[in-house]
Amino acid sequence: PQAKLIFSMSLLLGTTITISSNHWMMAWTGLEVNTLAILPLISKSHHPRAIEASTKYFLVQATASTLLLFSSASNAWFTGQWDITQLTHPVSCTLLTTAISMKLGLVPFHFWFPEILQGSSLMTSLLLATIMKFPPTILLLLTSPSLNPTLLSVMAIASAALGGWMGLNQTQIRKIMAFSSISHLGWMIIILIYSPKLTLITFYIYSLTTAAIFFTLNSTNTLKLPTLMSMWSKIPTLAAALMLTLLSLAGLPPLTGFLPKWLIIQELTKQELTTMATTIALLSLLGLFFYLRLAYCATITLPPNSTNHMKQWHTNKSINMLTSILITLSTMLLPLSPTILTIP
């Protein structure tokens, strides 16, 4: 318990240092603290898969941190500025975009993310998909005026396409959630230059919905589609709530997940980028297909024959209060959208 507390506090500390710093060295320090704090949490199960995942994560994050430090140092070399908002040299901007893309798992640097989520426990996967992506996203927001719009748009559309396409053929729920994360990152990045506030709203709502799904899966110990199929016969209420949360993550109205997609498409149309808005909206249909498949498995399908996985006869029927709150927010927050839009 003491070790877990130390690692959790280090995660919070690293995130706080990064998002509140003006100097590149402090931002880099925060990212390193984050990486070192999450590694023991990934490898705590002592399974070979978990050890492999933590090794891969360390190598990718160390490479990305080195690139980030190199980009900031080269910018300081050419301009004499260590301030995060003063990133003006073109080569440094490109290097920073590459480094942050590796940290986030954007296409074409996405290969590590599904493998690491597959090797981690559900709660660690939730940390990797939400909290660990917050500091790099903030760094992108701070440097957004200097970044290359064309490069970001290409990476965003590629992420939305690949996240939807690769998720179609998966049966492991953690891998499906990983490709869902890559697809949502595409939505966040495409609007970054034009409206950074929208990127933050999208990130918050994505984190909320993903947390609700992971908490639900954790309370029923569900890792694969066959286990999900037997959920309705054990906890029908939670299965119905999970279906709504999945459809919210897919972005179907009148659920909460529709709000960021609606605002992003509206903003892209205002910026006269109708083709880009149409393309990313069509690509989200790929993701909708596997969300619908998950929702279908959770609520409508019952396993027709005996499956190879171990039956959970004694399922924990007590649902955590936090899970209930997260599910409610991630499905019913859309009526509050006028309030969110009036925030200055």
Automatic annotation (TrEMBL):
Topology with respect to the bilayer: Multi-pass membrane protein
Chief localisation class: mitochondrion
Domain NADH:quinone oxidoreductase/Mrp antiporter transmembrane: 21-286
Keyword RNA-binding recorded: no
Record's keyword annotation contains Membrane: yes
Ranges annotated as spanning the membrane: 57-77, 89-113, 150-169, 176-194, 200-217, 238-256, 276-298, 319-341
Compartments where found: Mitochondrion inner membrane
Single Gene Ontology BP annotation: mitochondrial electron transport, NADH to ubiquinone
GO molecular function, one term: NADH dehydrogenase (ubiquinone) activity
Keywords in alphabetical order: Electron transport, Membrane, Mitochondrion, Mitochondrion inner membrane, NAD, Respiratory chain, Translocase, Transmembrane, Transmembrane helix, Transport, Ubiquinone
InterPro entries: Complex_I_Subunit_2, NADH_DH_su2_C, NADH_UbQ_OxRdtase_chain2, ND/Mrp_TM
Cellular compartments per GO CC: mitochondrial inner membrane
EC numbers for this chain: 7.1.1.2
Domain NADH dehydrogenase subunit 2 C-terminal: residue ranges: 288-341
Reactions this protein catalyses: a ubiquinone + NADH + 5 H(+)(in) = a ubiquinol + NAD(+) + 4 H(+)(out)
Protein family membership: Belongs to the complex I subunit 2 family.
Stored PANTHER family: NADH-UBIQUINONE OXIDOREDUCTASE CHAIN 2
Function recorded in the entry: Core subunit of the mitochondrial membrane respiratory chain NADH dehydrogenase (Complex I) which catalyzes electron transfer from NADH through the respiratory chain, using ubiquinone as an electron acceptor. Essential for the catalytic activity and assembly of complex I.
Protein's UniProt name: NADH-ubiquinone oxidoreductase chain 2
Organism: Myiarchus tyrannulus (Brown-crested flycatcher)
Gene: ND2
